[in-house]
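Researcher: Before we compare anything, I want clean individual predictions. No alignment, no superposition, just each chain on its own. First chain goes here; please echo the sequence and then give the structure tokens.
Model: Echoing the first chain and its structure:
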Amino acid sequence: MIDLLVSRGVKKGKVRDSTDYVDVSKGEHLVEVPNLIGKQLDEAKKILEDQKLRLIKYTYEWSDDVDRGNVISQSVSPGTMIEENGMIDLVVSRGVEK
């Protein structure tokens, strides 16, 4: 986690030679995006919830390679570090087009 200096100054009412103070922000909490490809949609939703990430939307596409109901792709690559409560979109297989 990265600490960021938010402000620096002299406490109100103190003389100029007094000790300075600093406010430190811990920054955003980052989480690793899991690999959801090939997972059932319900399982992918649970994994995102457990990782403190948000599924914003999912769409369906035909696929010859991925079973119906499984994730084909995700909007953020697996292994990417993003802010907690970050947003992910999924594409889910409709199965083979008939």
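Researcher: Okay. Second chain, same rules.
Model: Second chain and its structure:
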Amino acid sequence: MTTLITTIFFFFGAFFILVSAIGLVRFPDLYARMHAVTKATSFGLLLLIIGTAIFFNTGAVWIKALLVAVFIYLTAPLASHSIAQSDKKWEKEESEGN
């Protein structure tokens, strides 16, 4: 039963990461691409982490999985915000230069 649950979590996690990669290629501008990457990849990684924790099912793995999930959910929005700010600044400098 644990193998089936782990497989389901891995499958859906990989699916969300695949959707994120497709969004990265298909969306037209930086902001839409960032939205696809940060949202879907974070959720896909969360599902993979949960699947891994269920598979190993020890206290140490659950604690590490929780810490990794918290780290991802704290840093992904910050990285996305920093990229958006630098793009905004770059566009402003481009328009002033011409």
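Researcher: What stands out in the second chain?
Model: The mean pLDDT is 92. Additionally, The chain has three helices and no strands.
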